[in-house]
């Protein structure tokens, strides 16, 4: 830890050392001083001393030490979030000055539900890290994105995995429950046959929803069809329909329909698919995308 004097001459708050933070995060993620020591090439006793000084500096216990593992205290959980962000910001700052400047163009395709969720943050961060790289974004359905990737028009794409007739490709970067959603206080869910909003044929959400309704013997009618989740959202806001929707995209006045009203849908997955000859700039953008989804798990 480093302490400095403030302009008024009083002792300022201590600065957190990035090396100690990296040690702390490694121990927290591995659950063991021994495993963490192997990863950072230091002895467990050296790591223990670092953590002891960190706890003394912050005045809080960070780990509960058990027979075969360690676990975080509530204060440790809080510091873990700060530590990850500080290390990431430190890496970004150093990269800005020391890493060779990347240039070029990257064609990036995404489905609109994914784009709504993570794209603004990813593109803003990538632009700060690699200002000389131009990213051209295309939004469309999974089938068209795959075709444009194969035709060489796009470099990497985010698509929904498991669409009917679609081969499994790429790396699964996200999985979450698909749930039934309607307007808060709405009556669409009470109607018979059940009015639903779906994407066109070939969408995993559509097949998951119809299969679930058929298995449960619930009568339905497809009252609204739209490729874009924003269109389905508009129909739900008007209380015309209910719709299968990712849990993370639910915003008031929409709400998740009680689980005993309609059959469960299961999880859906998002895959990142890249060209085999992806450029260094494309690889860098792919890393930002994977990292953005990783943060949603913490």
TL;DR?
It is built from 9 helices and 11 strands. By secondary structure, the protein is of the alpha/beta class.
Task: Describe the model.
By secondary structure, this protein is an alpha/beta fold. It is built from nine helices and eleven strands. It has helices at residues 18-30, 33-40, 44-58, 74-98, 112-129, 142-150, 204-216, 229-237, 280-295; strands at 63-65, 70-72, 104-110, 133-139, 156-160, 171-183, 194-198, 220-225, 243-246, 254-256, 267-274. Strands 3, 4, 5, 6, 9, 10 and 11 form a seven-stranded mixed β-sheet that branches. Strands 1-2 form a two-stranded antiparallel ribbon. A two-stranded parallel ribbon has the order 7-8. The protein is globular, with a radius of gyration of 24 Å.
CATH-derived topology of the largest domain: D-Maltodextrin-Binding Protein, domain 2
CATH superfamily grouping of the largest domain: Periplasmic binding protein-like II
Quickly count the helices: 9
Shape: globular
Number of domains: 3
Strand percent estimate: 15-25%
- Could you estimate the helical fraction of the residues in percent? 40-55%
Kindly name the structural category.
alpha/beta
Name the assembly state: single chain
Largest sheet: 7 strands, mixed
State the end-to-end distance.
Answer: 26 Å
Helix-strand string = HHHEEHEHEHEEEHEHEEEH
Q: What is the C-level CATH assignment of the largest domain?
A: Alpha Beta
**Average pLDDT for all residues:** 87
**CATH architecture term of the largest domain:** 3-Layer(aba) Sandwich
**Radius of gyration over C-alpha positions, nearest whole angstrom:** 24 Å
Q: Segments where pLDDT lies below 50 for 5+ residues? A: none
Instruction: Tell me the number of strands.
Output: 11
């Amino acid at each position: 830890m480093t302490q400095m004097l403030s302009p008024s001459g009083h002792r300022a708050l201590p600065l957190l050392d990035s090396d100690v933070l990296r040690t702390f995060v490694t121990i927290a993620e591995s659950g063991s001083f021994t495993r963490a020591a192997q990863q950072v090439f230091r002895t467990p006793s050296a790591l223990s001393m670092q953590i002891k000084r960190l706890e003394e500096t912050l005045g809080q216990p960070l780990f509960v030490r058990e027979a075969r593992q360690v676990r975080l205290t509530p204060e440790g959980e809080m510091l873990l979030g700060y530590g990850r962000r500080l290390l990431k910001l430190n890496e970004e700052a150093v990269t800005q000055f020391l890493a060779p400047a990347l240039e070029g163009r990257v064609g990036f395709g995404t489905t609109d539900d994914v784009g709504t969720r993570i794209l603004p943050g990813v593109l803003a961060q990538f632009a700060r890290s690699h200002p000389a790289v131009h990213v051209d974004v295309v939004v469309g359905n999974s089938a068209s994105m795959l075709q444009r990737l194969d035709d060489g028009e796009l470099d990497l794409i985010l698509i929904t995995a498991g669409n009917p007739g679609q081969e499994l490709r790429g790396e699964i970067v996200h999985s979450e429950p698909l749930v039934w959603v309607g307007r808060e206080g709405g009556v669409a869910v009470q109607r018979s046959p059940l009015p639903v909003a779906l994407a066109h044929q070939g969408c995993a959400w559509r097949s998951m929803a119809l299969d679930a309704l058929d298995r449960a013997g619930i009568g339905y009618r497809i009252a609204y069809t739209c490729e874009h989740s924003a269109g389905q959202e508009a129909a739900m806001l008007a209380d015309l329909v209910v719709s299968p929707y990712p849990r993370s995209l639910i915003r008031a006045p929409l709400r998740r329909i009680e689980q005993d009203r309609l059959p469960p849908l299961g999880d859906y997955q998002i895959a990142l698919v890249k060209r085999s000859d992806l450029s260094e700039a494309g690889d860098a953008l792919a890393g930002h995308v994977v990292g953005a989804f990783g943060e949603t798990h913490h």
